[in-house]
Design brief:
By secondary structure, the protein is mainly α. The chain has 3 domains: 89-246, no CATH class; 319-499, Arp2/3 complex 21 kDa subunit ARPC3; 504-751, Hypothetical protein af1432. The chain has a 4-stranded mixed beta sheet with strand order 6-5-3-8. It is flat, with a radius of gyration of 41 Å. The model is unreliable at 5-13, 44-48 and 728-752 (pLDDT under 50).
Length: 752
C-alpha cells in the first residue's frame, strides 16, 4: 500500500512538473495572442481605387470577373416604399365603454346623501375624472336611475364605433387602411378603412344627439352630458412597436436590386467622370482587394497590440512594482491575459450592439452604446488581485485597444474616455479594496464618464438635448455595470487562481469564521495567543510599510494546526497535566513540529490561499525547539540539532517575518510579571536579536531599521496589554522581575 502511495505521489508530482514546464510564461503568452487574433476578425477597409462620384478616372478599368452588383440605393428605395405601404397598427379596446358603464353605475349608486362629502370623493375617484363640486350637486338632485339609464344608452351607441383621439393623425400614414388588433386577442388582426374611424369630437356629437332624442328635461340632459362627455375616450390607440415590426418584416421581404458585370466589360474609361453606377461597380470589383487590405489592417492592429503588451509588461517587470512574492510571474500573466481577453470580448459585444441598435433605433446613437460599455472590469480586478501599478498599465493598454477597435470618427474620444475611466477605477480600488470599495469605484467611473461626456459636448459646441441625456445615462450605466461584473467575476478568479485578495482576507479576518470558532473551542489558549499576535503583527506591519491585513489575518491562522492536538501545547493546558512529561523529547519535538504540517493541510482544505499557507509554513522557519532539545541533552541523549528544528522554509516575506517575531514575543511575554517600559523594550529586542542571529530573517526583506521599528511597535502594543502591571523605573530596581523571568524563558518554548 505504501509503495502504491509513493508511486501515485511520484506520478502526481511529475504531472505537476510537466504542466509547469509546458504552461510557462512563454506558452501562456503565445496562446493569449493567438486567441486575441482569432476573436478580432477582419473588417472592411478602404477601396483599392480611391475614386468618388464626380472624380476623373485616371485609367481605363475593366472587370476581371463575372459578378452581380447590388444597387444599394435602389434596394433602399424599394425597402422604404415597402415600409411606407405598411398600414399602421392600432390596439382596439372593445370593452372600453362597457367597462365605463359598469363603473358609472357603481359610482352613481354609491352616493349616500347622508355622507355627501365622502360620497363626492368616492364618486370622482371611481370615475377617474376631474372633481367638480357643482356637477356633483347637480347630479344628486336626480335619482341615480334617471341619470344612469340615458347615460348608458348614449355610451352603448359608441361601442359600435372605432374612435381615435384625432383623425388627422391617421392621414400621416400613406395607406388608406389601418390594422386593428383586439387587446384581448392580439394575434387576431382586422384591416379596416380609415373612413370607418371617427375621432373623440365626432363620438361626443353622436352621444349628445342620442341624449337630445331620449331626454326631454334640459337640466337633466345637460347634467348627464357634462358627466359622460368626460368619459368618452378613444378605444383605438396607435401601437408604434407593432407598426415598426411590420415595417421591418416588409423591408426584409423586399428583393434586392442587382445589375450584372461581365468579365472584360469596361467599367470606366480613362478621363471619364465617375458616375453613381460606375462607383458601385468599382466598389464591387475591388471586393477581393478590399479583403486583402482588411487583413493588412488586421495584422497591423494585432502587431501594435502585441508590441504595446510586451512594452507595458516589460516596464512593469523591470520596475519595483512586482513585489508580491505570493504570485508568480506565470500566474500574473495568466490572470492579466485572461482579464484582457474578457475585456476585449466585452468591447466586441458592445461594438456589435452599437451597430445593431443604432440601425434599428434612431433615438440611441452608436456613441451612446459605446459610452455604456463596462470597460473598467480588467483594471479593477487587476488592482484587487495583483497591484495598482499593473492595473495602471492595463488602463493604458485598453485606452489604446479601444482606439484601435472603434471607427475613425469615434476612436480619439473613445480612447481617452476608456483610459480616464480605467485610471479612475484603479485609483478607487487602491483607496478601498472591499466589496463596498468595488461599488464606490464603479460610481467614481460613472461620475468620470458623465463629466467627460459633458466636456465633449462643450468642446463640440453642441446643445444639451435628449440625445445628451441618453449619453449621460449610458455613461452612468458603464461604471455600475463594471462594478457588478467585477463583483461576480472576482470570486471566480480567486477560486481558479487560488489567490487571496484583500477582500477575501477581510472575510477570513472575521472572528465569526467557522475555522476560527473551531480554534476558539478546541484550543482556547492558542486562539487567545493568535489574537494577541495579530495585534502585534498588524501594528508592526503598518509601521514598516508591509501589508497589515496579511500580517493580521495570517496571525489568526498561523497556529491553526494546533486544533489537531491542542493539549500538547502549554497554552491550552488548564489542569496542570502536561502529556509531554510521559514522552521522549524527540517525540514531543515531532508533535510540536507537526502543528505546522497540519496547519498547512487545514489551510489548503479550506482554501485559505497562499498568503495564509506561507505564513503558517514559515512562521517558525527552521528555528530550534530549545526546550525539548535541552531536555534531551539533560536526559543523557546525544540529540542531533536538525531533529529539533522546524522544517521551514524561513520567512520569505516581511509579513511572515513579522508574524515569526510576534509569535515568539507573545509566547515569551507570558512569563513577565511586572515589567517596566524599559524592561519590555529590552525583552522584545533580546528576542528579536536572537531570531536575527539565528539567521531566520535572512531570506525576507526586513532590514535592521525595520527591526528597530518592529521592536518599538511591539512595545507600544505590549504596554497596552500590561498597562495594569507596568512599573515605574524607580520600582524596577526593587522588583528585579525581568532577570528572574529570563530564567523562565525555556519553558515558553512549549508554546511554540
Amino acid at each position: 500500500m505504501e509503495k502504491n502511495k509513493k508511486k501515485k505521489s511520484k506520478v502526481v508530482g511529475s504531472t505537476k512538473q510537466i504542466i509547469q514546464t509546458v504552461f510557462n510564461k512563454y506558452t501562456i503568452t503565445v496562446i493569449f495572442f493567438a486567441i486575441v487574433a482569432l476573436i478580432n476578425l477582419p473588417k472592411s477597409s478602404t477601396n483599392t481605387y480611391n475614386l468618388q462620384i464626380g472624380d476623373i478616372a485616371p485609367k481605363t478599368i475593366r472587370s476581371t470577373v463575372n459578378m452581380l452588383v447590388e444597387d444599394k440605393e435602389a434596394t433602399k428605395q424599394r425597402m422604404e416604399q415597402a415600409m411606407n405601404n405598411v398600414p399602421p397598427v392600432f390596439d382596439y379596446n372593445s370593452s372600453l365603454f362597457s367597462n365605463t358603464i359598469k363603473v358609472l353605475k357603481k359610482a352613481l349608486f354609491s352616493i349616500d346623501k347622508d355622507k355627501l362629502q365622502e360620497s363626492e370623493k368616492t364618486f370622482f375617484k371611481l370615475l377617474k375624472i376631474k372633481p367638480s363640486h357643482t356637477l356633483f350637486m347637480r347630479i344628486i338632485r336626480f335619482k341615480p336611475q334617471d341619470i344612469f339609464t340615458p347615460a348608458q344608452d348614449a355610451l352603448q351607441m359608441l361601442q359600435n364605433f372605432y374612435i381615435v383621439s384625432s383623425v388627422r393623425n391617421l392621414y400621416k400614414f400613406n395607406p388608406d387602411k389601418i390594422i386593428i388588433r383586439d387587446i384581448k386577442n392580439p394575434k387576431k388582426e382586422k384591416l379596416i378603412s380609415k373612413d370607418d374611424v371617427i375621432d373623440v369630437t365626432r363620438a361626443k356629437i353622436i352621444a349628445y344627439n342620442r341624449l337630445r332624442d331620449t331626454v326631454e328635461n334640459v337640466i337633466l340632459r345637460n347634467t348627464i352630458w357634462d358627466l359622460i362627455s368626460q368619459l368618452i375616450t378613444p378605444n383605438l390607440t396607435f401601437n408604434s412597436l407593432a407598426t415598426q415590426r411590420k415595417k421591418e418584416e416588409a423591408a426584409k421581404k423586399v428583393n434586392k436590386v442587382f445589375f450584372k458585370i461581365s468579365k472584360g466589360e469596361i467599367i470606366v474609361r480613362s478621363g471619364d467622370v465617375i458616375t453613381k453606377t460606375d462607383y458601385l461597380k468599382l466598389n464591387a470589383l475591388n471586393s477581393l482587394k478590399q479583403k486583402q487590405n482588411t487583413y493588412i489592417k488586421f495584422i497591423a492592429n494585432i502587431l501594435i497590440f502585441i508590441i504595446i503588451c510586451i512594452v507595458l509588461f516589460k516596464i512593469y517587470e523591470t520596475t519595483k512594482a512586482r513585489k508580491n512574492k505570493w504570485i508568480t510571474l506565470t500566474k500574473t500573466l495568466a490572470i492579466v491575459e485572461t482579464l484582457i481577453l474578457i475585456q476585449i470580448l466585452i468591447f466586441k459585444l458592445f461594438i456589435y450592439l452599437s451597430n445593431v441598435i443604432s440601425f434599428s433605433n434612431v433615438n440611441i446613437s452608436q456613441s451612446a452604446i459605446l459610452f455604456g460599455m463596462p470597460f473598467a472590469v480588467a483594471s479593477m480586478i487587476t488592482a484587487i488581485m495583483i497591484d495598482f501599478e499593473l492595473a495602471f498599465l492595463v488602463s493604458i493598454l485598453f485606452g489604446i485597444t479601444s482606439w484601435l477597435s472603434t471607427t475613425p470618427e469615434m476612436a480619439s474620444y473613445i480612447g481617452i474616455y476608456v483610459f480616464l475611466g480605467n485610471v479612475i477605477a484603479t485609483f478607487g480600488i487602491k483607496k478601498e479594496k472591499t466589496r463596498t470599495g468595488i461599488v464606490k469605484a464603479g460610481l467614481y467611473v460613472s461620475m468620470s464618464n458623465i463629466i467627460f461626456i459633458f466636456l465633449l459636448y462643450l468642446l463640440r459646441n453642441n446643445e444639451i438635448t435628449n440625445t445628451t441625456l441618453i449619453d449621460f445615462s449610458f455613461g452612468l450605466a458603464s461604471g455600475i455595470l463594471s462594478s457588478i461584473i467585477v463583483s461576480g467575476l472576482l470570486p471566480v478568479f480567486e477560486y481558479i487562481f487560488n489567490i487571496t485578495t484583500d477582500i477575501k482576507l477581510l472575510e477570513l479576518g472575521n472572528l465569526n469564521n467557522p475555522l476560527l470558532k473551531e480554534l476558539a473551542i478546541k484550543a482556547p489558549g492558542t486562539y487567545h495567543h493568535s489574537i494577541v499576535v495579530s495585534s502585534l503583527a498588524e501594528a508592526a506591519a503598518s509601521e514598516i510599510g508591509a501589508n497589515p491585513l496579511i500580517a493580521k489575518v495570517g496571525s489568526y491562522y498561523h497556529d491553526i494546526g494546533k486544533i489537531k492536538n491542542p493539549m500538547y501545547f502549554i497554552e491550552n493546558q488548564t489542569d496542570g497535566n502536561n502529556p509531554h512529561d510521559k514522552l521522549k523529547p524527540t517525540i514531543s519535538a515531532l508533535i510540536i513540529k507537526n502543528h505546522v504540517k497540519y496547519g498547512v493541510e487545514i489551510a489548503k482544505k479550506h482554501r485559505l490561499g497562499n498568503y495564509i499557507i506561507d505564513i503558517i509554513q514559515q512562521h517558525h522557519g527552521t528555528s530550534l525547539i530549545k526546550y525539548f532539545y535541552n531536555k534531551a541533552k539533560e536526559s543523557g541523549m546525544n540529540p542531533k540539532e536538525e531533529d529539533f528544528r522546524y522544517p521551514g522554509p524561513k520567512p520569505q516575506t516581511k509579513e511572515a517575518g513579522i508574524v515569526m517575531i510576534a509569535d515568539e514575543v507573545e509566547a515569551a511575554s507570558k512569563t513577565l510579571s511586572k515589567p517596566t517600559i524599559a524592561h519590555l523594550t529590552e525583552f522584545v529586542r533580546d528576542i528579536t536579536n536572537k531570531i536575527f542571529l539565528d539567521g531566520q530573517l535572512d531570506e525576507c526583506e526586513l532590514t535592521l531599521k525595520d527591526l528597530n521599528k518592529i521592536v518599538d511597535s511591539f512595545v507600544k502594543v505590549l504596554i497596552g496589554i500590561f498597562h495594569h502591571r507596568i512599573e515605574y523605573p524607580e520600582e524596577e530596581q526593587k522588583s528585579g522581575e525581568y532577570n528572574s523571568n529570563k530564567q523562565k524563558e525555556p519553558a515558553a518554548q512549549q508554546n511554540s
